[in-house]
């Protein structure tokens, strides 16, 4: 019996992490073949990663067949799982997503605001194509989508592609659970958070340790200044009044929405001083690949942890293992709402605790949105629908609507210049916009 | 540390089963005290059961303190779990529920049609009082409601009592799972059925074995004539056309709704030949208690299995064990919908797969009702709401509405005589109706 | 400026009524051209009606151009309104709809139960074709659908045809308003009934006279035995208890659902004594056409009123007049729910008070379904959806589901024989079923 | 027969307008008695207005009995209509609502942002008391609520007071209809706008002239720079892209939400140059009352039109006339949603076209929210619910939640100082906050 994993975007600097996860779980999740796929532009990195991965497998002394290729269709044959971790346009595009909005006086961030919208615009068409390929070539395979904005991308695929076996993953819920465990001095496996919301806009509603409600304790810790922000975004802390009003655990990305001015000031200052985050990441990447090249290196190097997306591999490997083994354990993934949050559409993708089975994730009901955040969550979901619509239609008006309805933009006069500049900057990766406009 | 279980209706002939279950699970669910409670009318039976239970515990050599009493309030002190298995008015009342409708030319059945309505009318006020006692005396205790009509009763308590820790259980989903396992030659623990609907009106939507969809096979078996009806109700089989139209697993009680004429004819004939089911049960009960009295008997006797409610104990003990141990396993119970079936009200009680935790059951989303049965399920739920309303208000018009909106009655002209006769027959147990009418 | 009306099924015995209505309203609704269209089978009747209509117009001395034809496409050119009053299969088919179910022990009625389902099966495909023709040839024309089952047919067209300008009409709300006015000794134009439900399953929620709530008075009159049943269906009266429970005005067709046994007994007896209704109607029709032929007849004859569908013309002419003149008055029609009854789907067709404008009917909100009838109304709507689905797919299982989910059938064992006999009997008019089954 | 109108806040400078409206409509709406009511603080103005009103009635030579009083309970006896146009705390309070937010760098406006929230906080408790008085003293009277924020106030009364005959009115829809008529060179009575949303957040979805859809023409006019802003708020125009994206008519208040930065800059500049709007209004008021005092003045002076609220009287008088005469015409008012917009709660108050009857307004269904604005409308409604909750509870956390969830604030760090300053500034009028906090 075979168990084949295809990693799309295999040349990513994160790949060694997922390779390590596969190796570690070999007993319960016995992968027999891994194919790393990437595009022409990432050919060199792909080869570096491929060779490192081979050395890692060799060291682990496991019989996993590993190869790398630019031929995606070939790679997909007989695949059981397809993980995606792509970055359309690479770090250059990310740099533009961060820089252009900032230069217009708006938040410039990889997955939020105008930058996040454009990341979706570039990514969705590419992953739509992948999903159609998967549906044709290996229709029983699960797509495990790491690619950001993970929730929006997953909703786009589930709504608009023929392939319905798509699950989105993110490390934020994992981080929140682990940080909360630390706050409470509990084992992470004993901690459960009831989440409500969407990817990068999820709140924690209740925290249980071994089934006992510890929410109040965690909220107090947050007021006391403990936090669980990952390395890659700001961390300005929360006011007591905010936490007391919501009685919910915010996630770090909520800072963009409730501390917009402070974050913007800080980002503008940081930009002047250090340049944008994408450039920092670019530097990190270069040194990582320098390390990866070392033929003596036969394991995931410590330096990788400095990169933001820690635990992605853990999240993805756990998920694939539970599907494969029909474990029926509870994991937090991005999947169809289907009534879990009655206020949101049944076909919306939410980030929610699910029982993971061989036939996919089954959400646990969350119940109505908490009254304090129901408006903003609903609006963000409606905004996401606008982004998906524009990603598919390539219609300028649809894109404009997404801009003015985004809470971090919400400016019908200033949107035009910023939107036009971003469209021009990312032109190469936005065929849907430029073909439909007759250019 | 103590773990106290109170069994309300402890004099029931089912009690030895639950005692056996407790004994068997002692390692993982270490009950330290059991109190059997009953009412004056059941005093003698209570003592017989109590003594048998003591002998069973003694034989098992376990340190469980067991006692019996008519003083409910005292019994509830420090309780962790309160299970209910009462029969207000006893088998005499059941006999009237079966006989009177039949004599009017309608289905006479314990939990369906006019009989089921009156069972609810008698039961809900008594369990409302219990719930208020629990809320006052042992507010952290879970009420595990066995008492039929289990779904309606559970919804009444969750809507109208202050105590919100109430879970309803029934053996039908358990039976369906086990019968299905047998059909498929699979281990019951490997079989999962996705249920949709309410207690005694639940359908099986999908059958999975180790996560693999086997629904089509089970439907074929049903067409081939295999069935899973319990001993206590009719079993007329299903037509190929019905199964092909629905593509769902009906439960045995659906025969009352889709084979009404045949069931009625059969029941009328059986009534003429053997009398009603309640009388048969009465005979069974008498011989059971004769056996229970035997001081040599130190275990649950084989004869108990002839009684209809097999596996109730298994269902209840599994549930309490999983709550106690925060097992997060999946069980099928009656709890608040909360969006699991978006077409039904959030505060409706449905029979649904739940993750069982220390803080209660968390339903898995079911999604929209299947199009073929959405009408009848919605109507049955609306009918149940009418029953609950009338049970609480004691208003004659509310009761009349429940009668004419029940699919097994649905007769605005013939309802009056039947309703009036049932009200008179059960007068002693219906204070809400007779006080409110000024009698 | 022209104003052209096409009457599809122009050979119907009802046509003189609509012609009379058009003549009477000529000042405000100045029709310039009428074309009567019918099928080959109705050619002779069409000519009789055409000639009578010509004489009526001549007598009224109006400049309306009237013609008749079998060429529907030609007739539709430049039409402004298309009214439909067809009977696929004629009275022969109706006779089968009434007789076959009765012979199986079920209600046999033109628009309810198995007969109503088959009327839908025969009618929907024919009107779908008409709607597509209208959409292609005269896309701005309104289809005013008289054809029964009017609600189901209208929903089928609005859901499945490209033409969205379709309104269904029925005389039941009109009758209820006029009978109520009579009960209250008020002018009909001063009476408003708030309706809730669907065609032939509509309830009156509130009765206002000049804006004053008179509901209680009307309910009392109903209890006292006054009623408003049209000539063509039974009239068994309502019990005080039923009216007191519902606090709603039932419509005459509700007798089939809440007095099923009595109606069935009565219909079976009447069938034995006088044959079925369709045969009575056949006789009426023959004598009507004999009268129509009389070249001296230059107006609608009194005898027409004995036919069941009185006031249809009034209802249709008022509607067309208000659309044409953008009157913004309130009329009760069958149109998309769109939230008027939040419990029902937005795309369901309901019978509801609407403001009538040039751009169509705009429903007034009704609010949530009354708690007593919400179950049965929801179920009937879900049943209607099954009928529509089967009408379109021609799938045997879909038809079977409609049968077992109809409250007047609800018998999974006895449905097969009745369904099969009806399919065979109506074979000529059910291409969708026989092609899809490979016959 | 009597017809009595009570004007609460009768000392308002707007009162002469409503008096003029009453006089003008005397034939169809024959008011027999008017009582002007005000509070101690407004005593002097009340007398000036009362005397002017007397002179106006005398000039019109009508038999309307007019009086003024501070005794509200006495005034309410036998009232048929109670109109409210109060300003709790007067223009001084308004000045603080405008000034304090501006000084914190946020929009300072009478009915939007922090200022609007505080206007609600001051007004709701006062009108709750009025509603309870009305319910006790003249339970059949309609409350016609002019008082801003009119939608929020009306929802608060309908949700939390016993009196359910409450309708909110605003001149924005009236203005939009009249301005649109002007744009299209049509008579205002021929123009209908389908509105969607809430008071001060309403969009025009469709514009019909005599039933013909003219929406596209109006949108083009808006792009061309025509607008319909009232005198009292900014008018910055709309970009072509915004109008093209939404395909809806915004209302002038939408500028605060989609041109926040520009409005804020402009307001800050205006504040520096001319002071705040409240001070301008204060000046206008003073000169108005100087004119009103003139014993020769016997009609509404032209100068009143410079005040912002033009047409309020027209709106209110039309509404009362249609209720009184059961006109069944269509007017745009604030009333319970009841499904008109299925996405919003049934008990939300929306601004919607209604048929006006003696038994109240009946909304026409609007249908699902347009996809571009559904998020922001839903959020604004959820925000309004937070404001109402805080107005009733007086809970600091509830107020904080309203602040951070308002799109014009949305700043969890900067909210505290602004909220605290506003609470302190308005302390006298916020007993619910200061009692509940134990001050």
UniProtKB/TrEMBL annotation, chains A, B, C, D:
Residues 195-409 form the Glycosyl hydrolase family 4 C-terminal domain. Mn(2+) binds at residues 170, 200. PROSITE patterns: GLYCOSYL_HYDROL_F4. GO terms for biological process: carbohydrate metabolic process. The keyword Manganese applies. Its cofactor is NAD(+). The keyword NAD applies. Substrate binds at residues 94, 148. InterPro entries: GlycHydrolase_4_CS (IPR019802), Glyco_hydro_4 (IPR001088), Glyco_hydro_4_C (IPR022616), Lactate_DH/Glyco_Ohase_4_C (IPR015955), NAD(P)-bd_dom_sf (IPR036291). This is 6-phospho-beta-glucosidase. It comes from Virgibacillus oceani.
């Amino acid at each position: 019996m075979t168990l084949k994993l295809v990693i799309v975007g295999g040349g990513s600097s994160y790949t060694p992490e997922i390779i390590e996860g596969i190796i570690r779980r070999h007993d319960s999740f016995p992968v027999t073949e891994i194919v790393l796929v990437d595009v022409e532009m990432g050919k060199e990195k792909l080869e570096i990663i491929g060779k490192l991965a081979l050395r890692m497998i060799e060291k682990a002394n496991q019989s996993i067949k590993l190869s790398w290729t630019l031929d995606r269709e070939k790679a997909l044959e007989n695949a059981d799982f397809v993980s995606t971790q792509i970055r359309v346009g690479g770090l250059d595009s990310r740099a533009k997503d961060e820089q252009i909005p900032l230069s217009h006086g708006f938040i410039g961030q990889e997955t939020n605001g105008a930058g996040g919208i454009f990341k979706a615009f570039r990514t969705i068409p590419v992953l739509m194509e992948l999903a159609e390929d998967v549906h044709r070539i290996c229709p029983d395979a699960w797509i495990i989508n790491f690619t950001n904005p993970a929730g929006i991308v997953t909703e786009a695929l589930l709504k608009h592609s023929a392939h319905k076996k798509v699950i989105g993953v993110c490390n934020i819920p994992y981080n929140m659970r682990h940080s909360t465990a630390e706050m409470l001095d509990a084992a992470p496996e004993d901690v459960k958070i009831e989440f409500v919301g969407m990817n990068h806009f999820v709140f924690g509603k209740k925290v249980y340790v071994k089934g006992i409600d510890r929410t109040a304790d965690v909220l107090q810790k947050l007021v006391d200044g403990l936090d669980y922000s990952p390395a890659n975004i700001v961390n300005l802390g929360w006011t007591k009044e905010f936490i007391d009003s919501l009685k919910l655990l915010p996630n770090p990305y909520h800072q963009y929405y409730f501390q917009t001015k402070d974050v913007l000031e800080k980002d503008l200052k940081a930009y002047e001083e250090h340049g944008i985050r994408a450039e920092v990441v670019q530097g990190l990447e270069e040194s990582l690949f320098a390390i990866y090249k070392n033929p003596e290196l036969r394991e995931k190097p410590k330096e990788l942890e400095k990169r933001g997306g820690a635990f992605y591999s853990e999240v993805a490997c756990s998920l694939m293992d539970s599907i494969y083994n029909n474990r029926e354990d509870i994991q937090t993934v991005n999947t169809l709402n289907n009534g879990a949050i009655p206020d949101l559409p049944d076909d919306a993708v939410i980030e929610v605790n699910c029982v993971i089975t061989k036939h996919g994730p089954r959400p646990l009901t969350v119940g109505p949105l908490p009254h304090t955040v129901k408006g903003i969550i609903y609006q963000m979901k409606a905004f996401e629908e606008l982004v998906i619509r524009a990603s598919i239609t390539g219609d300028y008006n649809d894109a404009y609507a997404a801009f003015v309805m985004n809470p971090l933009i919400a400016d019908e006069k200033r949107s035009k210049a910023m939107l036009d500049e971003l469209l021009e900057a990312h032109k190469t990766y936005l065929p849907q916009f430029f073909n439909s406009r007759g250019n």
